[in-house]
Amino acid sequence: MDEQFDVVVVGGGAAGLNAALVLARARRRVAVVDAGDPRNAPAAHMHGFLSRDGMPPAQLLEVGRAEVAAYGGELVADRVARIDEGFTVHLAGGRALRARRVLVATGLRDELPDIPGLWERWARDVLHCPFCHGYEVRDRPLGVLGTLHLGLLLPQWSGDVVFFPHRTALSADEREQLVARGVHIADGEVTGLVVDGDALRGVELAGERVVPRAALFVGPRFVPRDELLAGLGCATDADGRVRTDPTGRTSVPGVWAAGNVVDPRAQVVTAAGMGSAAAIALNADLVQEEVQRAVATHRGETEAAGAAGPAT
């Protein structure tokens, strides 16, 4: 038998849990369905989140789940297989949840260049975000793999930055910008990493040339986990990303999205704020529906009383 909820949140990261917290405190019946594979699981710590700087990501989620549960929110460890147009949320384990509204906060996955060793060092000393990890590797020999904006950004954290174009063709202007910022350029194809003592020691180029580095910044390809939104028919923008308004409302009535699934640049603190904004908008949408229903009922009762005539 289907179970009825005001809102089913798909995804239990910062966006989904913060939305569920706000909704549960608003006395809405809310369920959070989470498959347990957060994008930032490999990271030891997260940064840039006021009052939570340096906290392990897993600890943030643990605290968040406890807070949601304390207000009556239901936490479901499962994967959503599909969502019907009438908002029946079918879980891989066979359970079905009926929702008045749906919030999808399923995040994204990172695709890295096909270079041996990158995944093994990912979120350790192969990094993607200077604002998340730059301070921890400050003043050390840093490398940048093929992403120009990272190459121009990283001199803020270290005076020893090497840019590896790899298979990226740099224009004369781009080379000039890097050199002007004090960035060295190491041409040639990157073939692997040199690791010793469970730490990155260098970047290997074709011809077995090794450039000593202590950390390597890589710009991954961000792939949104938006299959559920696509299945519901949500409109996308020119880049193929699901389009939302500032509250996370999609083109499909009753469907919201928040966090990295719609904004690849959102950090943990940003995603949490997006979840809060979506929750408040979701609640307002539910209230509007309830008001309309209450007015219709009130009018019907008033008309029925008038047709019956005055009481004697």
UniProtKB/TrEMBL annotation:
It catalyses: [thioredoxin]-dithiol + NADP(+) = [thioredoxin]-disulfide + NADPH + H(+). GO terms for molecular function: thioredoxin-disulfide reductase (NADPH) activity. It comes from the Bacteria. Gene3D superfamilies: FAD/NAD(P)-binding domain (3.50.50.60). InterPro entries: FAD/NAD-bd_sf, FAD/NAD-binding_dom, Ferredoxin-NADP_redctase_2. The keyword Endoplasmic reticulum does not apply. Keywords: Flavoprotein, Oxidoreductase. The keyword Heme does not apply. Residues 5-126, 170-273 form the FAD/NAD(P)-binding domain. This is Thioredoxin reductase. It comes from Pseudonocardia hierapolitana. The lineage of its organism: Bacteria, Bacillati, Actinomycetota, Actinomycetes, Pseudonocardiales.
